[in-house]
Structures are given as structure tokens and as C-alpha cells.
Amino acid sequence: MTSTRVMPAEWAPQSAVMLTWPHPGTDWFSRLEEVEPVFLAIARAVLQFENLLVSCEHVFRAEQLEKELNNWARENDLPGRAHCVPAPANDTWARDHGPVAVQTSDGTSLIDFRFNAWGGKFPWEKDNALNRHLANAGCFGDTPLETVDFVLEGGSIESDGQGTVMVTSECLMTPTRNPDYDRAAIEALLGETIGARRVLWLNHGYLAGDDTDSHIDTLARFCGPDRICYVRCDDPEDEHYPALAAMEEELRLFRQADGSPYQLVPLPWPEAILDADGERLPATYANFLIINGAVLMPTYNVAQDEAALATCRDLFPDREIIPIPCRTLVEQHGSLHCVTMQLPRGVVEL
């Protein structure tokens, strides 16, 4: 693999956003009426700026959804169009089973890392085959899909688009993913596959109720080559306070490639959101999605939502900030970024 490759930053120009639509065979089976409006809100927000690639378990739903979304886009004179493809899936977390894009000297490539449902926690076989299914259906045009025999989820890697990636050791070093790889071997593989020239490791930070073993996209995000926003807990009585304070100190010690520190911007800490059994859910404002001209920001119907939106406006003053109610998504222990995967310019042309 060429050494000139690099994983684009999320703010790089995009052609489409990928969604894997909920269906009765997923864990959403008892909540479809609640969760489909969330996916529709995401889909309609994306279509205001770019195309949408949706995989659906059932042919009828794919045809119905494509017609519905494209009629709406045309009626509102929007630039985006939807392409909905029948394809089997275990669940809806496109961030983690979707392809990871890289730019190479030959153009764009998509990498199909192995997906094993965060270390074998849930069924995963359909999700692991989904990218190849979409490629065979022509969804990625002429963009090649490279298969890499290494377990890696898109939510576990954060790129600045200049060769620096940020990850967590809790996730990438979990033995149920790649037990034969130590830290040096993982860094070498990230260099070969996504062009990582520097890897920034966070060794602290977590969210209660998180099934991903501390994905970076729940904790800290690049908002530019020199800026990182991150989750900060200000309540010493909260169970998260020690780990997130330690994470904040690690972020302070991170340096850019030129040796200068990063600008650090803390995100508001949402009040505790509990499920029906009283267990805490992993609500986080770090799980936003950057698209062409906009940022889709998760909200949870709590008092801190407005402060989070204000922070996002400060972080991305040149983009429209679109709130997406994600209280239902977090019931299944994920949020907005987790159900989406952006695809670079030129990949999905409709």
C-alpha cells in the first residue's frame, strides 16, 4: 500500500452520508415507530447539503424510502438525492461497519476493515459483509474497496486530515478485537492502511453504558487541524469525574506535528440520562457529524442542549448547526455520529 495515503478529516468535501436503516430484525424491533423519525431527520438534514446512501434489509422498504426521500428533496429544491439499496444488516451502526475512506496518490479508496460488533458482543456477520454487498451493487462507483483483515471501527479513529489520528487504548487494545497486535503493531498497521504518521493515544476517559470500549468519537474530536473539543465533567460527585479529568490532562499534553499545543474546547456535560431500569446511558455531545456546510448535533431533551448547540456554533462558525433529537438513539447506547458514515467527494454520484 502506498505511503502517500491519508485519512481525510471529517470536514473534507463529501459526496454522501451512509445510513443503515433500522428494521424488525435489529434491536430496534420494539422501537421502530420511535427511531425511524430520528433516521428521517438525519436523512433530510443530509439531503439539504449532499447525497445519501441508505441500505435497507427489505426491498420494499428500500424502494419506498428512496421514493419518499427524493420526492421530498425535489419538492424543496435540495441538492442531495437518496440511493436506497436492499442489503442485509444486523444493526444500524454505520460508523462502525461502514467503509473508512483514504486519499491516495491514485485517488480515493475505501477500506473494509473487519467488524466483529465491538469484540463479539452482538451478532455481526451481516454487518461485516455489508460493504462488499454495497460495492458489488455499484454503490461506490469506480472507487476501489480494499479488504483489510484487522478489526477496526470508524468510531474508534479520529483524523485531522494531515496524518495525525487520535484513538483510545481502551478500545484498540481490547484483546477481543486484535489479540496478536501490541501498540507498535497497531500504529504500523494504521500507517499502512490509513496513512497515520502520528497516533495520539488517550489512556483515560469513558462513558457509562458504552458498548464500544470508549470510542474516541464519544470523547474527543478534531474540529480543525489545531483544535480538539472534548467531553468534560465538572461534577466531582459524578462517577466519570476522575477518568475524564485524567483524559483532559492527557489532551493538554498532546502536541501538533510542529510541537505546538492544541486549542482545547470543552463540551457541556449532559445530566445523567437513565434507561427504564435506571442504568445510565452514554449521552455525549461529542457524537456530532460534520457534513458539507453543516454540523448535525445530537440533543437529548436536557437543559444542557442549548449550551452544546452554542458551543458547536462557536466551533464551526462557517457551518449551519442542525440539532437532531437523539434521546431514542442513546437508548441503544449510541448516538448521531454512530449511525452515520461520510463518504468523500466523487464516491457517490447520483
UniProtKB/TrEMBL annotation:
Entry keywords, A to Z = Hydrolase
- Tell me which domain of life the UniProt entry assigns to the organism this sequence originates from: Bacteria
- This one is known as Agmatine deiminase
Source organism: Marinobacter zhanjiangensis
